[in-house]
Amino acid sequence: MSASPAAPPTAASAAPTLAGKYLTVVLDNEAYGIGVLKVREIIRLQKITPVPQMPSFVKGVINLRGRVIPIIDLRVKFELKAEFTERTCTVVVQVKLSADQTVQMGLIVDSVEEVVTLAANEIEPTPDFGARIDTSYLLGMAKVKGQVKTLLDIDRVVAPETVSALAAAV
């Protein structure tokens, strides 16, 4: 007896798995959600040591309590206006490189808003922007207090080849 392949998840069946808690952060006056299970801590900006020949969104590395972690500027990664304010901070996240390997990275954001708990009915699938637009790094769109917040798949936001280059450099 052969098992039939599982059907790909539809938007309706995928939504319940997206329900949960998200840390909302601001980038250029827009709100984005990062799953709280990926977030390790939120820290103030500190001196970043540049690493040569990295993409422009990779600002370098910091020493976080004896561990060297790469720093990514999400504003630059998303091609948004990047300016530092007193609320600019770094969100340290756990990024999955492969099934058995993870790495901590710092993400520079304009500010942190709050932790929200989202039910499945508050999350809609990512709209189809056309064949040429890659939305694989988006989990969906959340409706929170009358506003739309984009939910990020943080493992896919940082391209695997960038993570590999950073791991080799650090």
What this model shows, in words?
The protein has about 170 residues and is an alpha+beta fold. It has a single domain (about 10-170), classed as Beta Barrel (OB fold (Dihydrolipoamide Acetyltransferase, E2P)), CATH 2.40.50.180. The chain is about 15% helix and about 45% strand. It has four helices and eleven strands; from the N terminus they run H-E-E-E-E-E-H-E-E-E-E-E-E-H-H. The strands form two sheets. The protein has a six-stranded mixed beta sheet. A five-stranded mixed beta sheet has the order 3-6-7-5-4. Strand 10 (about 140-145) and strand 11 (about 145-150) form a beta hairpin. Residues about 1-15 have low confidence and may be disordered.
What is shown here, in short?
The protein is α+β, with helices and mostly antiparallel strands and 170 residues long. The chain is built from 4 helices and 11 strands; from the N terminus they run αβββββαββββββαα.
What kind of oligomer do you see? Answer: single chain
Sequence of secondary-structure elements: HEEEEEHEEEEEEHH
Structural class by helix and strand composition: alpha+beta
In this structure, how is the largest beta sheet organized? Answer: 6 strands, mixed
**How many distinct beta strands?**
11
Predict the CATH topology.
OB fold (Dihydrolipoamide Acetyltransferase, E2P)
Low-confidence stretches: 1-16
Number of helices: 4
- The gross shape turns out to be globular
CATH class: Mainly Beta
Rounded Rg:
17 Å
Helix fraction, binned, reads: 10-25%
Beta-strand residue percentage: 35-45%
**Count of the domains:** 1
* Widest sheet, order of strands: 8-1-2-11-10-9
| Average pLDDT reading | 83
Straight-line N-to-C gap: 49 Å
